Amino acid sequence: MPLAGRRGGSLRGRARVPGDKSISHRALLVGLLTVGASEIEGLLEGEDVLATVRACAALGGALERRGPGAWTIRGAGIGTLLQPAGVLDFGNAGTGTRLAMGVVAGHPIEATFDGDASLRKRPMRRVLEPLVRMGVSVVEESEGGRLPIRLRGAQDPIPIDYESPVPSAQVKSAVLLCGLAAPGETTLIEKEATRDHTERMLRHFGAEISVTKQGAHGRRISLRGRPELTPQKIVVPADPSSAAFPLVAALIVPGSELILEGVLANPLRAGLYATLREMGASIEEIDRRDEGGEPVVDLRVRASSLRGVDVPAARAPSMIDEYPVLAVAAAFAEGETRLRGLAELRVKESDRLAAIAAGLAANGVEHEIAGDDLIVRGRGRAKGGGTVVTHMDHRIAMSFLVMGLASDKPVAVDDASFVATSFPGFAELMSSLGAEIGA
Ligand code: S3P
């Protein structure tokens, strides 16, 4: 489905973007491992999370939708999962796949994991490697450790001490979720702190987790295995990675002013917000509060003159999904923005580094890839007029639609259908604020 963003009036109003994708996956999977009924409010009902809903049902969970975003999941506890009858198809969702691998890994069952053409290209060995150490058998895998993959979980999972070679919350989460079923203590060491929603969620459900600092930017996380998890109520905050799209749109479309409600303000997800403020963005916090173990805020954002900045590589884990839309903001800034240390972008839903560069090129934005860095030479405007190839990547699609809202000519994307993986209703929400997004 092609779509285009074009210049119109300013963006105004209030909006709440859908629930956080990372927290939604975790609420379901931890609920599945808990005896009794957990209630989730604000669950993201995007395709990625719905794939996890189906996987939880196939693994023995009882799920009920009580209303929009309101779900109940009844689990039978750690160690009780059923062997799924069919393939667990995760569609486009890397998070669902890798976290569910960790869950299956701690149970003596076999399961086949598969996904769409984008997911089949993504590396899975980063997760299989520690899980094999914990006792998992890889029954079948495709070339290069790609999906489809069939796993046999461990009869008696082994608690390990594991230092992750990649800064990935998905790898960390897979190890911790498998560690739930292991006796004793499972420890994960990360050199760079990554999003900590799994740790927070497990603690919320009653698991014993200790976190200490490791080196300059890292953490050491230890989980006591076989905890008794108790059912909880979870309120999923609005996804800051989705809020990023209307937020950047409001910054670059002259005269705009928006309020974005209930946005997750976890510091390990806040890199984009810090960077935009350094660029001169007017982003004001109105009401900071706590919801279900996570901090949330309402944000007031106003159109701003942006200037280029140097974004350090150490910030990457806290804004890993936001580089496409930051590159768009950088195009509308004055001067050079250098985004450092983007190697992980090459293994996302698409090769995002290449996809961003191609999108900038198609719309007349001067830029350069230097090793793992992207340099965008901002001129305070973009020509637009190009069609961007999205490569089944929701965030590439949304970022360039946002670019079109402030470019001289419209910006088209070849296929916006994957937007529904993380942000169902994106075009409608943007239109309700005054954006011109349409065929
Ligand atoms: C996620 C972690 C990140 C991120 C993804 C969601 C998570 O991936 O890109 O969208 O929920 O744990 P990596 O852990 O592979 O960096």
Search tags:
439 residues, alpha+beta, UDP-n-acetylglucosamine1-carboxyvinyl-transferase, Chain, 2 domains, 4-stranded mixed beta sheet, 12 helices, 25 strands, globular
List the helices and strands and how they pair.
Elements: E1 3-6, E2 12-15, H1 21-32, E3 36-41, H2 47-58, E4 62-67, E5 70-75, E6 88-89, H3 94-105, E7 110-114, H4 125-133, E8 137-142, E9 146-152, E10 161-163, H5 169-179, E11 185-190, H6 197-204, E12 209-214, E13 218-224, E14 233-235, H7 240-252, E15 257-264, H8 271-278, E16 282-285, E17 289-291, E18 294-302, E19 310-311, H9 323-331, E20 334-339, H10 352-362, E21 366-370, E22 373-379, E23 387-388, H11 394-404, E24 411-413, H12 426-432, E25 436-438
Parallel strand pairs: 2-15, 3-14, 6-7, 10-11, 19-20, 23-24
Antiparallel strand pairs: 1-24, 1-25, 3-5, 4-5, 7-9, 8-9, 11-13, 12-13, 15-18, 16-18, 17-18, 20-22, 21-22
The protein binds shikimate-3-phosphate.
Report a brief summary of the structure.
With 439 residues, the chain is α+β, with helices and mostly antiparallel strands. The protein is 28% helix and 28% strand.
- Please report which band the strand proportion falls in: under 5%, 5-15%, 15-25%, 25-35%, 35-45% or over 45%: 25-35%
CATH superfamily of the largest domain: Enolpyruvate transferase domain
Q: How many helix segments?
A: 12
Identify the CATH class of the largest domain: Alpha Beta
Number of domains: 2
Shape: globular
- Uncertain stretches: none
The biggest sheet amounts to: 5 strands, mixed
SSE-based structural type: alpha+beta
From the coordinates shown, what is the CATH architecture of the largest domain? Alpha-beta prism
- Helix content range: 25-40%
